[in-house]
Structures are given as structure tokens and as C-alpha cells.
Design goal:
alpha+beta, binds nicotinamide-adenine-dinucleotide, 18% strand, 13 strands, three-stranded antiparallel β-sheet, seven-stranded mixed β-sheet, 376 residues
């Protein structure tokens, strides 16, 4: 079944059944060379991003992962190397392993240490794309822990211009905070420091849609709403969110996430020459129960959330059905998408091409089907 095309007449969205798509993604990663466990974790993460409404970090990333693997930049079935271990402080190296697996290993260790010591500081360096960072904060939340994550990203070319500049100098460096609550839904702040995530520009381009005003400049530094300027040569750039504020937070993510963990920053001398995405992340994970403030935290958190929600609404609030809390849009999206995910024709064609590339490289075995065959 097709959803209506965008207002600007962009391609229609197809309703792809979620469970068969998850099975197809697992099959693809197994065919690429992942263990069954790694393939399942990767499918859980990518489909989970689509379910959360972040198509930028969902199955649409698969062609990038396949290219990076075939180029020898992303490695499969990697165990993390523990480089520094003082008990509460850890630095681990992901060896360019697939991020969905190495970040899970790293976060599992950090959660163990936060449980043992009350707080853990984790530096994860040299991981391939670790996807939707909210996924890692949710791991901490599920363990009853607060997670604060500063992440840098690096690709062959930077994609975000600094505030006051027109040349791309860094990537979309996300900042993420997860706060568990005993008496209510967790709070989950998780966003790129660019005005929009780069993958959202890819999704918009594939769907033939414009990007929001103020989010993109062309190669000459002129504002535009055409996402294609980010993918054509010479390339334009994304702008940071909230002017100097997103710019300043992106710099902090780069220095804490990459420089301090022993990774490298995305400056010209360090840019990779092969396709793929490098992520480095500094995470602070702690047990709020150890602060002994549980009852007053719950009272204040609930009271404050209610107070904020009690504001009179403007047009945005009316359209949203109220003032939302960070993490709420993702919960709404999961409820709406549980059975079917909307994917546009360009993304489906790119997934089919990725499957063909895996089939061609593998040579033997049952070929992966075209994902469009999943649509009833
Ligand atoms: P976004 O602009 O959609 O913002 C999402 C955040 O804002 C969430 O915390 C959400 O709950 C909150 N939010 C949205 N509407 C809200 C409202 N009305 N009221 C209150 N809170 C609201 O996110 P984005 O910048 O497009 O980032 C998307 C994803 O991309 C994130 O999951 C991020 O981790 C990921 N990302 C990853 C990388 C990487 O290198 N791995 C790089 C950039 C972004």
C-alpha cells in the first residue's frame, strides 16, 4: 500500500511490513559476513531507528555500510580492545567494527562499571557508525542509569559549516542525554548539532522534498532548501542548529568524543580516504539512586513536567497536541509504525542495489531477495 506523495509531488512512500523487513536486514548482514548475533543486533538497531521515526539512521544506512565493508573500512565480528581500565574509567577501541556491535559491547562494560562504582566514564574510539545514539542512552535507561553522550563523526568529507564560516569543517556530532524516571516516562534528548541530521537531508533528497529554511547552504555559502547541494560537487554544507550554540556544542563533542578518547578529530590531515563513517563517543553513565535523591527527584521531575505541559499552546503545540517532552515523539512514532514502516522508492531501490552488491561479492549461496518483494 502506498502513502500519499509529499506536498511537492515527491515519490510515494511504501508501507513495508516491519517484521519481514527486520528478517531481510538480518539476512543481508549474515550474507555480508556477520555472525547471526551481530546481524540481529544490527537489524534491531537500524529497524529501531526507523521505528523511533529517525529514518536518517535506519535501514537507509545499509548501502553505506555495505560500501564501507566492501572497501575494507568496516570490519565485521570485532571484539572491542580495552585500552585503559581504571575500574570506573574506560577507553576502548572499536577497531572499525560495525558500530551496532562494538558500541553495544562498550556500553555493556560501562553499565557494569556504573553498577559497581556508581559512575563510569567510557571513551569509545574508532567505531564504524554507531547509528542513533539514543539507542545507547536507552541501554543505560533500561539499567536505571543516566547516560550523557558526546559523539563525533567523521566521513571522507566534512558536511557541516562552522558558525561564521561557509566551508564544511566537521560532521553532525550528536549530543544525547537519557534520564530514567521511576514515576514517569524517561526523558531522552538526542539530536545532531547540525540544523538537521545529514541522513535527514538524504531522506529528503530521496523523497524529492525540500529541507527546512536555514538548514543548508550551497557551495558559495548561499542559503537553499535543496538537499541535493549536499550530494553534488562542489558540495554545500549543513548549518549548525541555533547559530553559535550548535557550533559550540559540536566543538565540545569533537574534543570530548574524539580527541580525549584517543581517536582523531575530523581535521583535513585525518580524513579517511575510504567510504564509511567513523564515530568516537565519550559517555558518562551513572546510577542516580546512589545520590540518595530518589523521592525528591521524582517529585520535582513530575511536578516540573506537569508545569511545563500546562503552558497555553501556540500553533506548533496545537498541531502536536500539547507540549511534548524529549523522547515523546519517538514513543509516538514507535506506536504508529509497529506493523509497517514507510520507505520511499529511492531508498528501496538503493537497498535492492546493496543486496545485489552483496550477492555479487558472495558469488554462491541463496541470493538475497529484492526488498520490494516484501511489500504486499
Ligand atoms: P531531531 O531534530 O529529530 O531531534 C530529536 C530530539 O528532539 C529527540 O530527543 C526528540 O525527543 C526531541 N524532540 C523532538 N520534537 C520535540 C518536541 N516537540 N518537544 C520536545 N522534544 C522534542 O534529531 P536529529 O538531529 O535529526 O537527529 C536524529 C538522530 O540522528 C539522533 O538519534 C542522533 O543520535 C542521530 N545522529 C547520529 C550521528 C552519528 O554520527 N552516529 C550523527 C548525527 C545524528
Amino acid at each position: 500500500m502506498a502513502e500519499p506523495a509529499g506536498d511537492n509531488g515527491g515519490p510515494a512512500l511504501r508501507d513495508v511490513p516491519t517484521t519481514p523487513l527486520h528478517g531481510w536486514v538480518r539476512q543481508l548482514f549474515e550474507a555480508l559476513g556477520s555472525s547471526a548475533d551481530e546481524a540481529r543486533l544490527t537489524a534491531d538497531h537500524l529497524i529501531g531507528a526507523n521505528l523511533a521515526g529517525h529514518d536518517s539512521h535506519g535501514v537507509g544506512m545499509i548501502p553505506t555500510y555495505v560500501d564501507a565493508c566492501h572497501a575494507g573500512h568496516l570490519s565485521l565480528n570485532r571484539e572491542i580492545d580495552v585500552i585503559v581500565d581504571t575500574g570506573a574509567m574506560l577507553v576502548v577501541d572499536g577497531g572499525m567494527g560495525i558500530g551496532q556491535s562494538v558500541a553495544r559491547q562498550a556500553m555493556t562494560l560501562a553499565i557494569e562499571r556504573a553498577n559497581a562504582h556508581g559512575i563510569a566514564l567510557l571513551g569509545l574510539r574508532n567505531a564504524h557508525h554507531i547509528g542513533r545514539i539514543g539507542h545507547w542512552a536507552e541501554m543505560a535507561i533500561e539499567a536505571g542509569l543516566v547516560g550523557i553522550h558526546f559523539t563525533n563523526a567523521m566521513t571522507t568529507t566534512p558536511v557541516v559549516a562552522p558558525h561564521g564560516g561557509i566551508d564544511a569543517r566537521f560532521v553532525t556530532n550528536p549530543f544525547t542525554v537519557g534520564i530514567p524516571r521511576a514515576d514517569g516516562e524517561p526523558i531522552l534528548l538526542d539530536f545532531a548539532t547540525s540544523a538537521i541530521a545529514h541522513g535527514k537531508a538524504r531522506v529528503a533528497m530521496n523523497a524529492g522534498r525540500a529541507v527546512p529554511e536555514g538548514s543548508v547552504i550551497d557551495a558559495a555559502g548561499r542559503p537553499t532548501t535543496d538537499p541535493r547541494v549536499l550530494f553534488d560537487e562542489p558540495g554545500g554544507a549543513l548549518r549548525t542548529f541555533a547559530e553559535h550554540k550548535g557550533h559550540a556544542l559540536a566543538i565540545v563533542c569533537e574534543l570530548l568524543g574524539a580527541a580525549l578518547t584517543g581517536g582523531v578529530t575530523g581535521r583535513d590531515a585525518n580524513l579517511p580516504d575510504r567510504p564509511g563513517i567513523v564515530n568516537n563517543m565519550l559517555a558518562i553513565v551513572f546510577d542516580p539512586a546512589r545520590l540518595g535523591t530518589g523521592p525528591s527527584f521524582e517529585r520535582e521531575a513530575t511536578g516540573f513536567v506537569d508545569w511545563v505541559r500546562s503552558s497555553r499552546l501556540d500553533a506548533i503545540g496545537e498541531a502536536l497536541g500539547g507540549v511534548l517532552m524529549p523522547g515523546e515523539p519517538e514513543r509516538r512514532s514507535r506506536a504508529a509504525r509497529a506493523r509497517h514502516l514507510p520507505l520511499d522508492d529511492s531508498t528501496l531501490a538503493q537497498l535492492a542495489a546493496a543486496a545485489e552488491a552483496v550477492n555479487a561479492r558472495r558469488g554462491s549461496g541463496v541470493p538475497l531477495p529484492d526488498p520490494r518483494s516484501l511489500i504486499g
